[in-house]
Each structure stands twice: as C-alpha cells, then as structure tokens.
Write a structure and sequence with these properties.
By secondary structure, this protein is α+β, with helices and mostly antiparallel strands. The chain is built from 9 helices and 29 strands. The protein is elongated.
C-alpha cells in the first residue's frame, strides 16, 4: 500500500512538472518581446524651455531664413538667423513624437526675435556705465568716430596729424596725440532684428556726437541773428554751437535768413582728447596803475607814464577734451617787446581813497591762456552758465587782487565747487572771486591792495585742471570780468 502510494505521488509530480514546462514554452511562443526604436533627432529649446523634437536642424535654419524676407529687405542683408535664445541639441530618444520644422517655426516666431549678423559696440562712460549700440557696417563706425574727432579739431589739422605732415611752425597748433578717453569695444554678434540697429551714417554720427538719434532742437535764423546771439538764446557756448553745426566754418560766418541750424547740446559718447603744442604771438596789454600825491588837491591829476602793450611769443603744451582745455602749461616764452604800464597820479590832499574801481589789475602773471569764457557752455550734455573766466598756462601760479578792498571770505574746502576760494569787496557794489586755489595767502577781514598776492593757482573743488576761476559781481549780479579791462 505504501509503495503504491509513493509511486503515484512521484508520477503526479512528474506530470505537473511536464505540464508546467509545456505551459511556459507555450507562453513564450504566444508572447513575443516588444521591440522599441531609438530615434536620433534634435531637441529644440527657446530661452531654456523645451519646444519640441525635429529630425533636421538645418531644415529649421533654412526655413527661418526663407520666411524672414521682411527683415532682409529692411536691413538689406542676405541672411537671417535663429533667435539668440534658440538652442538645438542632438539627442537619442525613444520618444516618437517628432514635430515638423514648420510646426517648430510657428511655435518660436512670435516668442523671440530673429537675428542678423552685425556688430555690438560698447562705450564705457566716465561713470563706469556702458552704453551699447548695434551696427551692421564697421566702416561706418570708423567714419563716425572720425567725424566726431574732426568736429573738435578740423579736417585739415586731423589729416596733417594722420599723415605726419607737421613741420615746426612759427605760429599755430601742432597736434601730438589724439585718442578717446572712453573705452570703446566692438565685437561681431548676431543682433536681434528688433533692436535699435543704426544703419545710416548720418544717424550714427549724430548718436556719437549728441548721445541720441532724435535731435529735437532746431532754430531758423532771423535777420538780426548772429552766431553768438543764437548760441546765447539757446544756452550754448559759441564753440558748442560750431561743433553742433560742422558745416558753419567759424564764429564770424554769415548765416542766411531762414537757415535752419542745430541747437541741441552736444554730449559725445566718447571723449575726444587732443594733446598739442600751441605757439602764438600774444599781446600783453598794459595796465593802468594809480599813485597818490598828498601834496596835490583831489581835483588835480596827471599821467606820469604812458602805457604801451607788450608782445611775447609763447608756446603752450595743451590737453583738450571735447574742445575744452583741461590743462595748458607754458613751455616757453620769449618777450619780444616788454609791456609798459600806464601810471596816473591822483591828488590825495585831505582825501582817503577806498574802492577805486576805475582801473583793474590782471590777477595772474602774463602771458596766460584763457581756458573758458563767461557765459553758457555744455557740461556733461547739459547747459551750464559759467559765471566767470578761467585762466591757466602761466609761468608762475601767483594770484593777485584785481583791486584794493576787504577780504570777505577766505575759505578752504569744497565750497559749492569753488574749492579754496577768496572773495574781496571793493566797494561801489563790486566783489571779486578767486576760486580753485591750492593755497590761500590772506584771511577774512584783511585789507588788501590792488596787485597784492592773495593765493596760488590750483585745482581744488569742482575743477578739471589747474587754473584760476575769476568771477566778478556788481550789485550782487555776475558780470563778465573782461568788461573791467576794456
């Protein structure tokens, strides 16, 4: 019984194993493995976001170029490129959802701007900030920079400098160096077609000279106008006006009635630095000096010595930025004819003179260089009224009182841009101001005589180089200091 039972169990186990093997073989025969296809294609990204898959990136680029005829016509280019934010990467994927290049094009055309081949120009300002413009033709940029330089130096002088044709001149300017004091970089780039791309030479010239491409201020010449009156009406210096209107040859040029001139303030993107030696024959005007004779009555006066102008040949080493003198040092000076001052004697019997404002002394030694005038000028692209005259280029830096009087201010520090400053009250409503001094050699409350040493020329406060700023007030209003010496 036991042996028969064991035999039966073995048979059943064998049968079950055989059936299991047959079942597995059957299932393997019925169910074949799924075959997955690997696709080699391109993943399209725009600004880092996935857009879709395509088989050919070249077909996409060709379609972009073909469809963007409007951009080609606008900028007169032969080829249009993909947006800057478009990236196409080759990948292997099991994903079979492949899009057509037409579908991808429709997806991206309104999301980002297509590009064209051009140049990115960056100009670093004095404040460290960069301005960027886009151009298509590098030759136009070179021409624009040249035109800005010529606006300040003149075509003939610039060509002489480039060609090395300077000879030792008896009189005139010899330019030794011209450069831009701002960093200008240019690099090839794919420029978005919706950027402000400057293609016109005149527009590019305008942008480099005025800092924008939209000049708004034009003026029509009237019969009573001169260059000086037009400049003053529009808060410009004459030099600024001539730079803004390079076709006008000089400050004495005749203007036609109805002629349209530019009166926008210039604001060059890059500072044009001109270094030169300037030689000139300078007339040294005589001064009228007064003496007092206590033996004569007040109504008695006479000329003790007639005055005569002197003449000197002087050479200055000068540095200008955008037409404004920043530094001018006297290199040599030869007195050809000495100056002889006029001397007038006044009766002073029983009379005390104070604040004689008839004759004024010059505040520096001679010869000298005037580096800026009284009146309107452009500073950093904005109109600025200069309330005095700037004097530099002297052999000595001594500063003298232009008239006797009482010192009402002798202050060191910034002082509203004046730097170290001396102010003298001369009576009769006149006050003289001596600014940017390196040293003050008087004190508040002191009485000074005409021609007395009161300070040393310097570069303190808001100043662009060593010079004297001489200001004069009459009854509280600033007047042109030169009017005292006529």
């Amino acid at each position: 019984m036991d042996e028969k039972t064991n035999e039966g169990a073995s048979f059943l186990t064998l049968l079950f194993g055989l059936l299991l093997v047959l079942f597995v073989c059957y299932m393997c025969y019925i169910f074949k493995p799924i075959e997955r296809t690997i696709n080699r294609c391109y993943q399209v990204y725009l600004q880092g976001e996935k857009i879709g898959l395509i088989y050919s990136k070249d077909e996409l680029y060709d379609l972009i170029d073909k469809e963007q005829q409007e951009i080609k016509e606008k900028y007169k280019v032969d080829k249009v490129y993909s947006p800057q934010g478009l990236e196409v990467r080759e990948i292997n994927t099991y994903n079979s959802n492949i899009m057509s290049v037409e579908e991808i094009y429709e997806e991206i055309k309104d999301l980002d701007s297509f590009t064209i081949e051009g140049y990115e120009v960056s100009i670093k300002g004095s404040d460290g900030k960069k301005k960027t413009i886009y151009i298509l033709d590098k030759a136009k940029l070179d021409k624009a920079i040249k035109n800005v330089v010529v606006a300040f130096v003149g075509e003939e002088e610039y060509n002489n400098y480039l060609n090395g044709e300077y000879k030792k001149k008896e009189e005139g300017k010899e330019i030794t160096n011209i450069y831009l004091n701002n960093e200008v970089t240019i690099k090839k780039a794919y420029v978005p077609a919706d950027e402000n791309i400057i293609t016109d030479s005149n527009t590019l010239n305008m942008y480099f000279l005025f800092g924008n491409t939209n000049l708004k201020k034009k003026y029509k010449v009237k019969s009573t106008d001169t260059i000086e009156t037009i400049a003053t009406k529009n808060k410009l210096g004459v030099d600024d006006f001539l730079v803004a209107n390079p076709d006008i040859p000089g400050e004495n040029a005749l203007l036609a009635v109805g002629q349209e001139v530019t009166v926008d303030p210039i604001n060059p993107l890059a500072g044009v630095v001109i270094e030169s030696f300037e030689t000139e024959y300078q007339t040294m005007r005589y001064e009228t000096k007064t003496q007092f004779d206590k033996t004569l009555n007040a109504d008695q006066t006479y000329v003790k010595q007639q005055g005569s102008n002197g003449l000197a040949k002087v050479t200055f080493a000068t540095k200008e930025v955008n037409g404004k003198v920043q530094k001018s040092a006297q290199v040599s000076s030869e007195v050809i004819r000495p100056v002889v001052d006029r001397i007038i004697v006044y009766g002073a019997k029983n009379v005390i003179y104070y604040g004689n404002t008839t004759y004024w002394a010059w505040p520096t030694v001679k010869p000298f260089r005037r580096s800026d005038s009284f009146g309107w000028r452009i500073l950093n692209g904005q109109p600025n009224f200069h309330k005095g005259i700037d004097i530099t280029g002297t052999a000595k830096k001594d500063i003298y009182a232009i008239q006797s009087g009482k010192v009402i201010e002798a202050a060191r520090g910034y002082n509203g841009g004046f730097g170290n400053v001396v102010k003298i009250d001369h009576g009769n409503g006149y006050v003289s101001i001596y600014a940017h001094l390196s040293k003050i050699l008087t004190k508040k409350g002191a009485t000074v005589e005409k021609g007395q040493l009161i300070g040393i020329m310097g570069n303190t406060g808001l100043s662009y180089g060593t010079h004297l700023h001489l200001g004069v007030q009459k009854n509280g209003e600033y007047i042109n200091p030169y009017s005292l010496y006529k």
